[in-house]
Design brief:
Length: about 90
Amino acid sequence: MIRFVFGQNVNKVETGVRILHIPTGLTARSTEERSQYQNKRRAMKKLQKKIFGLQQEEKKKQVNAAWREHNRIIRGNPVRIYEGEKFILKK
């Protein structure tokens, strides 16, 4: 869900736009262009970059957590080695 907040005209030629992404609380704003439409497009691109970066960071955290869990050795869970074609457990 995205909320658009349109700014006031500055000298009747420039209009700023601020976009708020409600689920994450991220905001992006643009006042570079004279057109409100162009500012809206710029702000959307900025917001998409921020959201993409946040998603990449979350994915990195999940991968690191999975590796930490994978590398943790739990006492009582020995490594099992099987031999032969009939997969006989080697002691």
